[in-house]
Design a protein that fits this description.
Layout lengths: L4 H15 L2 H6 L4 E6 L3 H11 L4 E5 L15 E5 L10 H10 L4 E6 L4 H10 L2 E4 L4 H18 L5 E4 L2 E4 L4 E4 L2 E2 L4 H11 L6 E2 H7 L6 H18 L9 E4 L3 E4 L25
Parallel strand pairs: 1-2, 1-3, 3-4, 4-5
Antiparallel strand pairs: 6-7, 7-8, 8-9, 10-12, 11-12
Length: about 280
């Protein structure tokens, strides 16, 4: 059964209201911005309950495809094909959605599973999720979409030096295979330095990465932050080999170990509570 006209109108109006706030909400901490194109309130609520618990932000999108979405910062689009009157993949529809949400990854949801649809998505570069689906299925596909965007932007995922590993996608740090818990400001500084291993970052750049100003008090706070960080990641904090000081310039991470320079792959780890879709 298709969406009720009133539901579609409400969702479309709400989408236009929310669209202007997407950028601000991104700055508040949501890792991934997801637009859900559905006229089904229950499905929208389900997507929110699963994905927002995993650091995403889910917004309802307009179904009219009138161009209102163009130019908005959207990472992933989830398309409920039934809300568009389709029970299986429609390549023309997906092509129009590509134009409305340029650069976004796309996941199509359908109640009817057809092998031909799974083959067709290879041509249009759209993922496919049949209903009913589990929370694990959904979060796994969203994670793959996030990783594809991360790599498409030219980001290197891992920094490795011996047994010290920084995962810039998952924002995790490990030493000898054990995860290290860091304060947000410490993690921000480390991620900034790990994105450019071996290159010195100025004090101003490092302070900006930590969310602090460039004042004298900011410099003092940065020195304390670096001291704490070395105590967490260095075997001998008084003689650091990972987090190095460039006198008069700033800080840098040691170059990566030679045996890791060409390695930037690892099987994705997906998490999610198993739950059936409506």
């Amino acid at each position: 059964m298709g969406p009720h006209p009133n539901e579609v109108q409400i969702l479309a109006s709400l989408a236009l209201f929310i669209a202007g706030n997407l950028m601000g909400l991104s700055a508040s901490g949501a890792r991934t911005r997801i637009v859900a194109l559905t006229g089904e309130i229950g499905l929208l609520r389900l997507l929110r309950s699963i994905l927002e618990a995993n650091g995403c932000k889910v917004f309802p999108g307009a179904l009219a495809l009138d161009g209102a979405a163009a130019g908005q910062p959207v990472d992933i689009v989830i398309v409920d094909l039934e809300s568009f009157g389709r029970e299986s993949l429609d390549l023309q529809l997906l092509s129009r959605l590509r134009g409305a949400y340029p650069g976004a990854e796309m996941i199509a949801i359908s109640k009817k599973y057809r092998e031909a649809d799974c083959i067709a998505i290879l041509d249009v570069d759209v993922d496919y999720l049949p209903r009913p689906f589990s929370a694990w299925d959904l979060t796994a596909r969203v994670r793959v979409a996030e990783l594809r965007r991360f790599k498409a932007a030219g980001h290197k995922r891992f920094y490795r030096h011996g047994s010290f590993v920084v995962d810039l996608f998952d924002r995790t740090v490990a030493l000898d295979g054990e995860l290290i818990a860091l304060a947000p400001s410490e993690l921000n500084v480390l991620m900034h330095l790990a994105s450019k291993p071996g290159l010195a970052a100025t004090f101003r750049d490092v302070l900006a990465g930590a969310g602090r100003g460039g004042s004298a008090s900011g410099r003092r706070a940065l020195r304390m932050l670096i001291f704490r960080l070395r105590r967490r990641i260095e075997r001998d904090p008084m003689h650091p080999v990972l987090l190095l000081t460039e006198v008069g310039i700033g800080y840098r991470l040691a170059p990566e170990s030679a045996d890791h320079l060409n390695s930037d792959t690892r099987a994705p780890q997906c998490e999610g509570n198993r739950a059936a879709s409506p």
